[in-house]
Protein 1
Amino acid sequence: MVTYYVVQSFQRGKKGMLIPDQPKQARDESHCGLMAERLALTSASVVAFSRSGCPDTGDWGDAKIISQFGEVPSELLEMTA
């Protein structure tokens, strides 16, 4: 089993919609949180999360939010419920 740590940031589009940036992979939970804090200074919204599972079988658990800044899209938060 492996755990991936990901930071997803968003920019606000011309009509106010959130547009996702390229997701960034972090080394560990601490690094993930620090990356999210840094990106929050220049992004409309940021969410840092981890997800554990087995890449060989494709069996993945629910995402676990580490931190979030700004208005995170509800679709993304539903993935962690």
Note: The helical segments are 29-40, 74-78.
Protein 2
Amino acid sequence: MEIVYRAVFMFVFLWVITRVVGRATLGELSTFELLLYVTMGDLVQQGVTQQDYSVTSAVLAVGVFALLTVAISYVNWRWPRARPVIEGIPIIVVSDGEPVLDSMRKERLSIDDLMTAAREEGIKRFSDVELAVFESNGRISFFTRSSDDSSGAPDPAPTGT
């Protein structure tokens, strides 16, 4: 039973640490998922190399991590008010072509990182950006101004009589 307590403690500890550290751009993998996979790999390694002399302990600890992950997913689905605490909320970092420095400072996002992300999306100037959102998964979504009016639903054709 001690292994279950240790696994629960480490799970909660890793979750808190990833929430405190903030968002990181790690491709498709969130910071928490990366830490979770590394920790689970270490737990399995301990069981395989017999450092604690028990494969059962490793299986039990990884199982507890998996159950807690499913529980957090369920809480996220069942109680939408818990979502901002568990996953975080998107933050506007560029509004009407101007970087929102207070939001960027709060999220520890440098102007260089923002410019790099914009260039990766093919955006040359912030003035082309209507809105940029720092998503809870660490990605930045850019919404640019369109110079033509062909986007969106077409205007209804005038009806003549």
Note: The chain has two domains: 2-86, 91-144.
Protein 3
Amino acid sequence: MRVTKILATTALVAAGLSLGACSSIRESRGYVTDAVLLSSVQPGIDNQRSVEMTLGRPTFTSQFGEPTWYYVSSTTGRKPFVRPRIQAHQVLAVQFGPDGNVTSANRTGLDQVVYLSPDGDATPTLGRERGFLEDLFGNIGTVGQPGMGGQGQ
């Protein structure tokens, strides 16, 4: 009777530990969002300095066109030994006018994420494929010829 209880308890503990090992691992990447701070940025009222004091430095800024600051945040989840998957994604784009005041603050989410799947394992390049023997014997006869950069010049 006592051995049966020990085996049952051991089996329950092992089952609990194995279920815990399969749980998803959550990771936050980029800007850590705070809904109150994000909603406090108001067009026509805030400027670059007040946005920086409220939200901090942006994830990246625009290089062309109107000055725009981007705050990018994503939360990924993955099971052990599996690629991470995006669970939540948010981008806040704050545009500034020429005077430095906020003209718009737009939020986008997971619906704007583009998933790219590369075509194959290699990047296509211009030119032709050379085989091993062409690489090995390709310069025979060209070294030393006039105009080819060898010793014969």
Note: Residues 2-21 form the longest helix (20 residues).
